[in-house]
């Protein structure tokens, strides 16, 4: 459930200061709306249908309180905070009150004139200078600084080995002879077959896969300390009062001090 907190200020400067205090207190700027001071000379019919009148009618309905609030708000500035919880709404209301938000219930109890009525006529002008101070917030995030890519692939390379091989060859020689036959010759004088086989050595290639190296891929974490140096800015406001000599010199020169 969302909660809406509305603060009405007499000047735009007060509203801007309250807005800055809300942001400094942790409220998101996107959840804060501000309507600048803009006095209107429109007719009553136009006022009833403008955005300010519609805003308060949505909050309070079409009663006298809605009309009194919208009439007063047209002469000032409105800061609207869209809080996320009741606790956040209470905190926003406290910040708006501390920075000069008008109590409309008190102001609208009498005739609405756009300013407080006192026993005498008073008028004042002023300028609000917001004092802004920067704060350095240091965090850390992970970023890629390097790495390795390990790619495995199969490559071929030619190898060569020297091997001596043995071959057998059968030789048949026939030569003419002339001698008397012996008993051995007579015993072998019969039909038959004689076989003599040739042999030769041939190369045999076997391949054996062996693990010759292991590649282990891992990463380690190291920590180190680092000093972060930067500069921050803030508003430095100095107030100097005019001396009597300076006032006299300005009067004699026809210069008038500006009302601040």
Automatic annotation (TrEMBL):
PANTHER family: STRESS RESPONSE PROTEIN YSNF. It comes from the Bacteria. Residues 103-124, 239-260 are annotated as: Disordered. Pfam families: DUF2382 (PF09557). Coiled coil: none annotated. It comes from Pontibacter locisalis. Residues 129-239 form the DUF2382 domain. This is YsnF/AvaK domain-containing protein.
């Amino acid at each position: 459930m969302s909660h809406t907190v509305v603060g009405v200020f007499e000047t735009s400067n007060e509203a801007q200061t309250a807005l800055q205090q809300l942001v400094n207190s942790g409220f998101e700027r996107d959840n804060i709306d501000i309507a600048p001071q803009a006095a209107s000379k429109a007719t009553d019919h136009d006022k009833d249908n403008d955005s300010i009148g519609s805003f308060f009618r949505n909050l309070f309905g079409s009663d006298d309180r809605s009309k009194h609030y919208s009439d007063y708000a047209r002469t000032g500035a409105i800061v609207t905070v869209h809080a996320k919880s009741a606790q956040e709404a209470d905190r926003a209301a406290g910040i708006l009150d501390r920075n000069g938000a008008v109590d409309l219930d008190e102001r609208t109890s009498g005739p609405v004139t756009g300013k407080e009525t006192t026993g005498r006529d008073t008028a004042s002008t002023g300028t609000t200078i917001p004092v802004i101070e920067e704060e350095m917030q240091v965090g850390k995030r992970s970023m890629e600084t390097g790495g390795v890519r390990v790619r495995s692939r199969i490559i071929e390379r030619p190898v060569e080995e020297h091997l001596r091989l043995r071959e057998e060859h059968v030789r048949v020689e026939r030569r003419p002879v002339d001698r008397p036959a012996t008993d051995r010759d007579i015993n072998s004088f019969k039909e038959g077959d004689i076989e003599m086989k040739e042999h030769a050595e041939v190369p045999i290639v076997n391949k054996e896969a062996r693990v010759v190296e292991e590649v282990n891929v891992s990463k380690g974490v190291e920590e180190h300390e680092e000093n972060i140096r930067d500069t921050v800015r803030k508003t430095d406001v100095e107030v100097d009062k005019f001396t009597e000599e300076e006032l006299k010199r300005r009067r004699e020169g026809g210069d008038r001090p500006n009302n601040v």
